[in-house]
Amino acid sequence: MTTDNWTEIQQACAAALPANVVQFIASKRGLPHSNSHLIAILHMVQDAEGYLSQEQMNAVSQLAQIPLAKVTGVATFYHYFRLQPRGKHMINLCLGTACYVKGADKIGQRIMAELGIHFGETTKDGQFSLESTRCLGTCGLAPVVMIDDQVHGPVTPGEVSVILEQYVKKTKAP
Ligand code: FES
Predict the structure, then answer these.
(1) Is residue 139 helix, strand or coil?
(2) 137 CA to middle of ligand 1, Å?
(3) d(CA 113, CA 134)
(4) What H or E segment, with its residue span, contains residue 166?
(5) Distance CA 161, CA 131 (A)
(6) Ligand 1, closest atom to CA 104?
(7) Which of 40, 45, 73, 103 has the fewest CB atoms within 10 Å distance of its CB?
(8) What is the distance between the alpha carbons of residues 148 and 161, in angstroms, rounded to a whole number?
């Protein structure tokens, strides 16, 4: 932001956010700030954009008059907020009890090693995003990995690269 003019700042921030978010923030102006307002705002931004960019978090901070440290703190504290665009394929590793007992942590380590990312991150080529999730309701297949809408299980660490390769091929297929 290169201006000190509040009107221009507001306009620039409004342009960085979906219209419904700008309206929602305006409707809450003057009310005491609560975490629930901020969480609702961040959900609305993510629903519209798929993730929360630094520019959008700055704009929320300015328009809602909430310190950027608080906006960033909430966005990073809750695992359901994404700070990077989603990859073409969404990997959800189940860390529910049944899957954990059957070695889900080792599957997670193998996925992270294969892709060079951690939970909440997207590969540089935009192919994969990795998230953890709780019970997917398919405990009989534990440990379970869901990629896009397909459940894989039981998965062994040695199978991880083969499974991921299937999705890379799918993306490349004409
Ligand atoms: S604990 Fe993983 S599917 Fe139920």
Answers:
(1) helix
(2) 6
(3) 22
(4) helix 160-172
(5) 17
(6) 2
(7) 73
(8) 16
Of 158, 39, 152, 49, the residue nearest 93 (C-alpha): 152
What residues line ligand 1, using a CB cutoff of 6 Å? Answer: 94, 96-99, 135-136, 138-139, 142, 144
Cβ distance 144 to 136 under 8 Å? yes
Instruction: Give the mutation target among 141, 144, 145 for probing the ligand 1 site: most ligand atoms within 8 A of CB.
Output: 144
pLDDT in tens, 17-71: 999 999 999 888 777 766 778 999 999 999 898 889 999 999 999 999 899 999 9
Q: 102-155: per-residue pLDDT in tens?
A: 999 999 999 999 999 999 889 999 999 999 999 999 999 999 999 999 999 999
166's tokens: 């299937």
CB of 155 closer than 8 Å to CB of 107: yes
Which of ligand 1's atoms lies nearest the C-alpha of 98?
Answer: 1
CA of 30 to the centre of ligand 1 (A): 44
Q: How far is the CA of 133 from the centre of ligand 1 (A)?
A: 9
30/37 Cα distance (integer angstroms) = 12
